[in-house]
Amino acid sequence: MKIGSSVSVGLVGLKAFAIQVQAFVSPGLPYFSIIGLPDTSLSEARERVKAASSTIGFRWPQTRVTVNLSPASLPKRGAMHDLAIAIAVMGACGALPQTENDSVLLLGELNLDGSILPLTGLLPILLFAKEHGITEAIIPQANIAEGRLVGGIDLRGVTHLSEVVRLLGGTCSAHPLEDSPMTAMVRMNRAAAAGENAGIVAGTPLPGDMSQVIGQNSAKRSLEVAAAGGHHILMSGPPGSGKTMLASRLPSIMPQLNEREALEIASIRSLCGTLPRYGLSTIPPFESPHHTASSAALAGGGSGVAQPGAITRAHNGVLFLDEATEFASRSLQILREPLETGSVSLSRSKSVTIYPAHFLLVMAANPCPCGNDWGTGEKCTCSSRERTRYWSRLSGPLLDRIDIQIDVPPVTSLPVISSEPTESSVDIRARVVAARAIAQERFAEFGWRSNAQADGDWLRRNTNSAALAPISQALSTQRLSLRGADRTLRLAWTIADLAGRTSPELSDVAEGISMRTRKK
User: Fold this and answer.
1) What is the CATH number of the domain that holds 282?
2) 183 and 307 both lie in a single domain
3) What's the gap between Cα 63 and its chain centre?
4) Which of 72, 252, 288, 509 could pair with 492 in a Cys bridge, judged by C-beta atoms 3.0 to 4.6 Å apart?
């Protein structure tokens, strides 16, 4: 009787944890069991491992084989641990020198013919391994481009179980079978999906430029303030006024992601299987779910361990809800928690998964169901009851969390061709970056990342009384609520930062109030 072992890493959401795989071969009737809270796909590893081991000439023991995944208290999911299980069993049977197995991270799903298939979520796993001193890893060859995004680990890309056995000092009596045309095509498709030939570093789509937007200078200014201060924004206007075009260009004026933020986004995309499409990008992500999206699609869902939703995929970037008033009320209410905490907690029967969700929310809506309740409203065919019902999905608690609420009027004329170019996203982003730096320096001791996170009491105490006068007047006439007054003050500080002032002036507060007086 002997115990073989190997090392793997599991994921609960984006949180990784080390797994010690131990195999024990004992006398008894032939039986293969996997214990340690495996999910269905991991329990099915019994058949995949047995078949794959047979293809390389390994004689499966005709006794009882027990594989334990430690720690037993954490749920394990997916087929990424197939390779570690196979190596642990071979070590228990004496087919591999055990000293080689405990220091190498093993990841990969086994096919019945012994081939090793790519996996998702590799990036957060390797980041965890590097942090905890693992210096060598054997991973699927199809994931090698993604793995190289993490330096400091010696990576070995493999395509078949026989290669792994030889790397670990064992011998094989068989070689990989030659792929049939159909198998080769499937392998190529999965390799491309995993990023082997997908240009994993240079495949990021670039957002459009603000100079392409005709007119709408007031809306552009509001978006600049939103990007500089991290303020959520709601745009209301008739169809064709440019709300979607404006929102899609917001990432182009936001500060680029630093290394830590870029790796966070890459880890989320790795878990979702979309990293090859974007690569390791410094451009803030932009997520725009359809208005028919369910609550699970927004927040995340699935059986066992919940998978990320649009809210998490928009982390450190923009979540754009076009036709926001068409979303289900239940879906919209899900936004309230992440808007306050910067994270989303998903509870399931076996685990609680917490995903990061610090995003800039942008909502766009028509003024009414037909879209014509604008100006005189003479073309509108909606009843007052229909208009009320249309906007009722945006609840008061949700709207209170939206700092900027503006109207976007229709463009009524084309601009006159001028020799002076329209201001580009590069120019706007330079001001945004400078304003963000001022705010971060000011709030360094408090840990606030932007004006949108600043405490209202601090802002009131540090704003001169003359600048506060318009807010007090708006409170007395009920143009603003008390919460709205604090949010207006946050806008005023951002506007002052953009202008390079140390504190808001009367004009900054007045502009802040104008950004919270949506008419419809």
Assistant:
1) 3.40.50.300
2) no
3) 46
4) 509
